[in-house]
Every structure is written in structure tokens, then in C-alpha cells.
Design a protein that fits this description.
The structure holds three protein chains of three kinds. Chain B is an all-alpha fold. Chain B has nine helices and no strands. The mean pLDDT of chain B is 89. Chain C has one domain: Orthogonal Bundle (MetI-like fold), CATH 1.10.3720.10. Helices cover 75% and strands 0% of the residues of chain C. The chains are: A alpha/beta, B mainly alpha, C mainly alpha. Chains in contact: A-B, B-C.
């Protein structure tokens, strides 16, 4: 179980005719005869309105709730066969409010499960540092801090690191990004997808937000009130062909637009902007703009990060270019940003070009609204690039 | 006390520093025993009723009833059984700490956020591990507050035990002071007792701060 | 077993119900003394508590009073008052005891009244102010009704403290039920001592019951039941 980097690979999870009732027999079923196969390394999103039993279903996988009927297996082994405590140490668990232990430092929080599994101290230490770096928190800075000193987004990341610590093959996430503001939520979602691309764990993700489900899931399982499975399939298939009135209503009337959220910026060919750097000479730039037949150049700083646009019309004298010359206006997009989010952001801004940057905010290229429209027009249902 | 005498006899104080120190030490010891024994009883009881909530009513009710009984009355009830002795005094003192200690420990444990408990369960801590590694450490502030209150209360009560022949500063206040109409002793004893209580109070505040470094963290 | 019989016999003896040392007399002495001290204490403590609690100023004073009140040994207070009253020529017995009891009653009442008023939801106060209520009106109509249960808890604590110390007051030759206990110890008359103890205990429990009932009545309907606080000062 202990490796230098998070190992690739998850375990297959199978729910067979699982039901749950709280209260005496004859009462209402919260989960009703649910059967679901989740492949190894797949992100399966459980989504539905409140009261549909999605969280209960997830909690039956790690036996925080015991099923009333049915069987759940991981890689073929019945989860009821192991002592619950042991089972849970092999499953990563992230909840909405995170639940970091306030009296432990960040490092101690992340190291909880390895410590339970009695890993040697040195190994725990290196694993904790590795994981903190993985979720984007500088170990030297954050390791010794207490949860009370962290922002909401930072706490979420520690929660994810903590769940990954013992390298479990299965991860359960219950609305993990729900308690964070929308801007940070998007960042966290993107980072999670980046992570998952590396570690390829089996992830069961619960959310009430159908857009989040579409963005995050390899497959989506839509649950109806009463704990009934309404449809399970890939996001594009569900959007293209909802199985029932309920599903159609739940995914929303804008499902055409939603399909746009299945393709990502990285699926497009990026345009190359004409770039200039700080302390370049203005006249030289004016010449290059004229030569390229382009109105605007993108000013970059010394780390290749975009500062804004400079128009040919502003380059009236001989000065060296400084930060004040650039007009910021392009929203920054990441390769994982969905086409739909990119479109929405670009439509709303002054400069309708999207600058695409990597995780350190360095420029990768440009996309335009036209480029996105071209993509929609070119793809029949079920065949969006990247879907 | 004749009006022409000086009110506080400083010379007496100077001559009796040793005795006062001795009685102060005695007072501290009696307090220490009471609080330690009280905690030794209260802590497991609190853990018990933390799990079995139905017991909360009867146990807190009993502790509460004990707490209300005036100490002199409690002595009176105990003397036929345990005589006029230190044991009687300690039994009474211990019973007065029980309500505070049990209640505070319970409130401390109840105060742990449900999501922290859920995370603990989900990560794979057993019930035992959850109690000792998560719930109790987080309950420490309230437990220490309980110890602080119990200690300060007990310090005030120890003086009364002089009525049944025990020592401590009560001896100074009562036997050397009130019985002999000697103001200096009365004031010396009382003020030393207050001083002791204040020092104990501050000591516990310091202890609590030391034990909970995480409560002072703030978002940078 | 036999001992219980002796105690019962003590209660049964009609001589113990008559005269200056009889149960009714001692009980009345105790109740009167406690009641008077409590009342006097309230007369002093309530105005102070109201001012500190309503304005929020002098919180340091309130906290210090509460702390000292907790730390003072009741015997000490009795003892410290004695020389002063002797000098003033007010004698032994009733006066010093009454003064000491009054002093002891003050801290819990001030402390709880202050806390109770401070804990009133600020939004409610703002709403009241917004409606045009003046300071005293706010106090009377908004803050006090909400703070009443907590304030009554303070009075309850003070009452027990007073009853308990009045018991000890017997050492200053005051009357009251404490006489039975003190005299019983001195004369090695255990049935008398236990009888006295039982009576005091019953009185204390009765007081608790009375004030607990008042507290419950005072809770404005619709407000969630607040936890009764651990008494700030001890039963002596």
C-alpha cells in the first residue's frame, strides 16, 4: 500500500439490490433496490434532489450505514466480510464540512490513517509532504498550521490529502466542494480532475448539482426521490437521451448547452497570441503588430504570466513597456475548464477572447467564441470531442 | 478586641509566618486530595453517561442534590458514620466537586462538532480511538475549566472543615481567630485563602492555554 | 439501624418542638435570617447588576466580583465582619452574621444578572431600539424578560449560599438550625446533630425547589430552555 507516488488504479465497486430503510419494517425505503456497477478507476457521480438517498447509498459502501437488504462488494469482496473499522481505513472519505481535527496540525491530520496503520514515522512524514504538495499546499508552510488558521479552500484540500494518505483504491466524496464559494469551487474541481487523471482511483462522488455531476463524472447515476435509480450512463448519453420525464426535468431544459460542458478547453486547438514582454520597446512591438495584421498583443511578465492586452493604437511613443500599459480584460481559463464555462466567462467580459494558462498561470494559448461555436456545429450527439 | 488595640497585629504575623505557611500547605494538600479524588470519580462517571444518555438525569440530579446540601449539614450527616475526622471532611469536599466535574466533562464531550466525529468514523477510527484521540482532547478546555472551578470552590470550602477539627487556613480563621476574637488571624487566614484561590485560578488558566495551542490559531 | 431510631426519636420528642431551642423557633430564625440577608443582598446587587448588564460597561468589575465571590471562604467573611461590628459596638451574633450573609449574596446575583443581560441577542436589542424604545424600556420589556431565568439562577445560588452560611453563623451565637449541628458536635449528641443536618438539608432543597420552579415560570414561552448554570459560588 505504501508507494512513493499515489499509485494508479482503483478497485471495482458493485452494489447488488441494495436497499435501506430507517425505522421499523413497513416504513419508507430511503434506498430502493439499487444495483450499480462502478468500474475500477472510474468516477461515478451519484446525483439527485434531496431525499433521493444518494448520501445514504455512499455511506453504505464504507458501512457508516448498514444496508437493510442487498450486497456491496469491492473487487468482489463483500464489504460486510471485513470489520468496519478496517474497511474504512482502506476507503478515502471526504465530507462537505471536511471535519478536520481542530486539535491536530495539518500534517497530523493528513497522517491520521497511516498512523492508525502503524506506518513508520519517516514514511508517514514523507507521505504527508508528498500529499500536501500534490494538493497544492506548501508542506513547509502548511504542515505545522492548525485548521483554524486555514481558509475554506485550504481546508478542503487538506481533507482530500487526508483521504488519499493511505492510498486507498476507493474514494467517497460527499459534496466535498459544496461549502466553498463558486470561484474556488471551480478551481478545486479542476484540481481534483487533474489529480484523478494521475491517480485513477475509483471515486464515488455525491452532489445535488447536476452541472457538477456532468463535469466530474465518467458516468452519472441519477437517483429519484425514494432512492430509485432513474438512469446511469455517461454524461453525454444522459444529456442526449434522458430515460424518463424525471431525468429530463432534472438535467434541465438547457441540456444542449450543458453538453458543451463536456468538452474542455484542452480539446480545442489553441490559437497563438502575439506576445510582448515587460521592458520590450514599444516601436518594435508596433511593427510586429502591423506585420502580423493583428490589433492587440498580449503582455507577459517574466514568468510568462499574462498582464493584459496592448493595442497598436496605444503604442504612440518610444517607451519601454510596463505593467500599466496593459489592459486586463481577458478572463483566464485553464485547460480543464469546460467549453461551457469558458463560453459563459468570455461572453460576459469586455475582450471576448479567452487566454488559456497552466496551473502556474503561464500562457498556453487563446480560444475564441467562434472556435467554440464551430465545435458545436461540427459534432453530432454523443460525439463531442472529449465527451 | 479592645478598641485601643491596633486592628492588625503585624508583630503577630511576623512571628507566625512558619505556622501560616504550614497551614497554607495543609490547606493546599486537603484541596488537592479532594479535587484529585473527585476527578477520579467524576471522569469515569462522565464517560459512562456520555455513552448512556438515560443515566444523565439521575446522576446529575444526585450530584446536584449533593452540591446543594450545606457543608455543615453534610458533615453532620457523615459524622455518625466516619467520625469527626479528615475522612469526613474529604468525603464532603469530594462530593462538592462531583457536580462541576461531571457536568463540565460531559459538556466538553458534547461540544465536539458532529462532522469531526463523522470524519473520524469514516477514516476508520474505532470507537475507543475516537474517544481518546479526538473527543477527549477536544473536550480538554471544558474539563480544565471544570477542574479550575472545582479547585477554587474547594479552597473556599476547606476553611469550614475547621469546624470539625480539621486544619488548613480554617484553623487560623476559626480557632486562632474567631474563637479568640483575634482579628489578625481572621484576616490573615481569609486573605491567604483568597490569595490561594486566585493563584490556583490563574494556574489553571495558564494550563489550559498550554494544553490547547490549536485554539489560538487564526486565519493568516 | 439503631441510630436511625435515635434520630427519629429525637424528632418525636415533643420537648424538641417547644421553646427557644425548639424546631419551629430555630427554623423560623434560619428562614428569617436568610430571607433578610437575601433581600438586602438583592437590594444592593440588582441595581448594580442592571446597570452593568444593560450598559455593558464595568464588565471587569462584574467579573472580578464574581471571581472574588467564588474564592471567599464563607467562614472568612463571617470572621472578617466580626471585628468590625465589635468595634462599632454592634455586638456578636445577629448583626455580623446578617452583614456577612448579605455580602455573600451579592456576587452570584450581580454576576448572573450581568451575564444574563449580556447574552440577550444583540439583534433583539437593535430591533427594540429601532422601534423607538428608550434605555429603560428596552431593559424592562426586552432584556430583562429574556435574562430572567439566568438572573433567577443567580438568586437561587445566592439563596443556597446564604442558607448554608447561616447554618455556620451558629458559631457567632446566632440562632438558626445550625445551632443543632454545632451544639450536637460540641455535646457529642449525635442524634441532635444529625437531626439538625437533615433539617438544614431539607431547607436547602426546598429553597432549590422553590427557585427552580420560579425559574421555569420565568422562562418566556417560545424561548428554548437554557441550561441552568453551575452555581458560581459554593454552598458553604
Amino acid at each position: 500500500m505504501s508507494s512513493a507516488t499515489p499509485s494508479a488504479g482503483g478497485a471495482a465497486v458493485s452494489l447488488e439490490h441494495v436497499s435501506k430503510r430507517f425505522g421499523p419494517p413497513g416504513g419508507a425505503l430511503v434506498v430502493n433496490d439499487l444495483s450499480l456497477e462502478i468500474g475500477a478507476g472510474e468516477v461515478c457521480v451519484l446525483v439527485g434532489p434531496s431525499g433521493c438517498g444518494k448520501t445514504t447509498t455512499m455511506r453504505m459502501i464504507n458501512r457508516l450505514v448498514e444496508p437493510t437488504a442487498g450486497r456491496i462488494t469491492i473487487d468482489g469482496d463483500d464489504v460486510a466480510g471485513l470489520p468496519a473499522v478496517e474497511l474504512r481505513r482502506r476507503i478515502g472519505y471526504v465530507i462537505q464540512q471536511v471535519g478536520l481535527f481542530p486539535h491536530l496540525t495539518v500534517a497530523e491530520n493528513v497522517g491520521v490513517v497511516p498512523r492508525l496503520l502503524r506506518w513508520p514515522d519517516a514514511q508517514i512524514r514523507s507521505r504527508v509532504n508528498e500529499l500536501l504538495a500534490l494538493v497544492g499546499l506548501e508542506p513547509g508552510d502548511f504542515g505545522a498550521r492548525y485548521p483554524a488558521a486555514l481558509s475554506g479552500g485550504e481546508r478542503q484540500r487538506v481533507g482530500v490529502a487526508r483521504a488519499l494518505a493511505a492510498d486507498p483504491p476507493v474514494m467517497l466524496l460527499d459534496e466535498p466542494f459544496g461549502a466553498v464559494d463558486p470561484i474556488r469551487r471551480e478551481r478545486l474541481q479542476n484540481e481534483f480532475l487533474r489529480l484523478q487523471a494521475q491517480v485513477r482511483k475509483t471515486v464515488v462522488f455525491v452532489t445535488h448539482d447536476v452541472d457538477e455531476a456532468i463535469k466530474m463524472g465518467d458516468r452519472i447515476a441519477i437517483l429519484a426521490p425514494g432512492g430509485v435509480l432513474a438512469q446511469v450512463d455517461t454524461p453525454d448519453a444522459i444529456l442526449a437521451a434522458p430515460a424518463s420525464r424525471f431525468v429530463e426535468h432534472f438535467v434541465g431544459a438547457d441540456r444542449g448547452l450543458k453538453r458543451l460542458s463536456l468538452a474542455r478547453v484542452r480539446d480545442l486547438t489553441l490559437g497563438a497570441p502575439l506576445t510582448a514582454r515587460l521592458r520590450d520597446a514599444a516601436p518594435a512591438l508596433r511593427q510586429r503588430l502591423a506585420a502580423g495584421g493583428v490589433e492587440y498583443a498580449l503582455l507577459l511578465d517574466d514568468q510568462d504570466r499574462p498582464l493584459g492586452w496592448i493595442g497598436a493604437a496605444e503604442l504612440t511613443d518610444d517607451r519601454l513597456l510596463g505593467e500599466a500599459d496593459a489592459t486586463p480584460g481577458s478572463p483566464l481559463l485553464q485547460p480543464e475548464t469546460t467549453l461551457r464555462d469558458a463560453l459563459s466567462v468570455m461572453l460576459g467580459s469586455a475582450v471576448q477572447l479567452g487566454v488559456v494558462v497552466d496551473e502556474r498561470d503561464r500562457v498556453l494559448g487563446l480560444i475564441s467564441v467562434d472556435a467554440i461555436s464551430a465545435v458545436i456545429q461540427a459534432s453530432p450527439p454523443g460525439q463531442l470531442p472529449g465527451a | 478586641m479592645r478598641p485601643e488595640e491596633e486592628f492588625i497585629r503585624w508583630d503577630w504575623l511576623a512571628r507566625n509566618l512558619d505556622m501560616l505557611a504550614f497551614r497554607l500547605g495543609e490547606h493546599m494538600l486537603i484541596t488537592l486530595v479532594a479535587v484529585v479524588v473527585g476527578f477520579a470519580i467524576a471522569f469515569p462517571v462522565a464517560l459512562l453517561i456520555y455513552r448512556r444518555r438515560r443515566l444523565i438525569g439521575p446522576i446529575l440530579g444526585l450530584a446536584g442534590a449533593l452540591y446543594v446540601i450545606p457543608s455543615l449539614a453534610l458533615f453532620g450527616l457523615l459524622i455518625p458514620i466516619t467520625g469527626i475526622s479528615l475522612l469526613t471532611a474529604e468525603i464532603a469536599l469530594v462530593s462538592y466537586t462531583l457536580l462541576i466535574l461531571v457536568r463540565n466533562t460531559l459538556i466538553g464531550l458534547d461540544g465536539v462538532s458532529p462532522e469531526v466525529l463523522d470524519a473520524a468514523d469514516g477514516l476508520g477510527l474505532s470507537a475507543h480511538q475516537r474517544l481518546w484521540r479526538v473527543e477527549l482532547p477536544l473536550a480538554v478546555p471544558l474539563i480544565v475549566t471544570g477542574l479550575r472551578l472545582a479547585t477554587v470552590t474547594t479552597i473556599g470550602l476547606v476553611a469550614v472543615t475547621a469546624l470539625i477539627g480539621q486544619g488548613g487556613l480554617g484553623f487560623v480563621i476559626l480557632t486562632l481567630g474567631i474563637d479568640r476574637f483575634f482579628a489578625t488571624a481572621i484576616y490573615a487566614g481569609s486573605l491567604l485563602s483568597v490569595l490561594l484561590a486566585v493563584v490556583a485560578d490563574l494556574g489553571f488558566v495558564w494550563l489550559q492555554r498550554r494544553l490547547t495551542p490549536w485554539s489560538r490559531a487564526q486565519v493568516a | 439501624m439503631e441510630f436511625i431510631g435515635e434520630v427519629a426519636a429525637w424528632f418525636g420528642d415533643p420537648a424538641h418542638w417547644a421553646g427557644r431551642d425548639g424546631i419551629p423557633v430555630r427554623l423560623l430564625e434560619h428562614v428569617e435570617l436568610s430571607g433578610a440577608a437575601l433581600l438586602a443582598g438583592l437590594l444592593i446587587a440588582v441595581p448594580i447588576g442592571l446597570v452593568i448588564g444593560h450598559t455593558g460597561r464595568g464588565a471587569l468589575v462584574a467579573i472580578s466580583i464574581a471571581n472574588i465571590g467564588r474564592a471567599l471562604p464563607s467562614v472568612g467573611v463571617l470572621g472578617m465582619v466580626l471585628p468590625l461590628t465589635l468595634r462599632a459596638g454592634w455586638g456578636l451574633g445577629l448583626v455580623p452574621t446578617l452583614i456577612a450573609l448579605t455580602v455573600l449574596a451579592i456576587p452570584p446575583v450581580v454576576s448572573n444578572l450581568h451575564t444574563g443581560l449580556r447574552e440577550v441577542d444583540r439583534d433583539l436589542v437593535e430591533a427594540g431600539r429601532g422601534m423607538g424604545m428608550s434605555g429603560p424600556q428596552l431593559l424592562w420589556r426586552v432584556e430583562l424578560p429574556i435574562a430572567l431565568p439566568v438572573a433567577l439562577a443567580g438568586v437561587r445560588t445566592a439563596a443556597v449560599q446564604v442558607i448554608a452560611t447561616a447554618t455556620i453563623g451558629a458559631i457567632l451565637s446566632t440562632g438558626g438550625l445550625g445551632r443543632y449541628i454545632i451544639d450536637g458536635i460540641a455535646a457529642q449528641n449525635q442524634p441532635k446533630m444529625v437531626a439538625g443536618a437533615l433539617l438544614v438539608m431539607l431547607l436547602a432543597l426546598a429553597s432549590e425547589g422553590l427557585f427552580a420552579g420560579l425559574q421555569r415560570l420565568a422562562r418566556p414561552p417560545g424561548l428554548r430552555a437554557s441550561d441552568a448554570r453551575v452555581p458560581a459560588a459554593s454552598a458553604a
